[in-house]
Design goal:
By secondary structure, this protein is mostly helical. 66% of the residues lie in helices and 5% in strands.
Length: 126
């Protein structure tokens, strides 16, 4: 039904798992991995941006203040580099504007979707 949602959700869940592994094990390589995965999740659809506070709250919930400062800086830098690397080949600004405009148009006007032999303007499951 929705072609971009599974991709977005896969990368978002993988990023959440990777941040959990980092918090629980303190492995240094786990800091950039969730950033790259989250950047890959945000690339097809921007709606996973609502998960960004989780990456700040995870160290706070476990009382790891140094991890928040150092890991947060590494995570943010890696996230920005990954987003730029993913969007740069498509023209950074125009690609983001197109994605947001396209998704806003679909939210406002709907799009034809066929479910169980019926065609809907707005999918009945969301």
């Amino acid at each position: 039904m929705a072609l971009l949602d599974p991709v977005m959700v896969f990368f978002a869940l993988a990023a959440l798992f990777a941040i959990w592994v980092w918090i629980r094990t303190d492995r240094w390589w786990c800091v950039p991995v969730p950033a790259v995965l989250m950047a890959a999740s945000v690339t097809p659809k921007a709606s996973t941006l609502v998960l960004l506070p989780v990456f700040v709250l995870a160290p706070v919930l476990f009382g790891r203040w140094r991890a928040l400062v150092v890991g947060g800086a590494v995570w943010a830098a890696t996230f920005v580099v990954a987003v730029v690397a993913l969007y740069a080949p498509m023209g950074m600004r125009s690609a983001v504007q197109y994605m947001l405009a396209f998704q806003s148009g679909q939210n406002e006007h709907g799009h034809l979707i066929s479910t169980a032999g019926h065609t809907y303007q707005f999918a009945p499951n969301w």
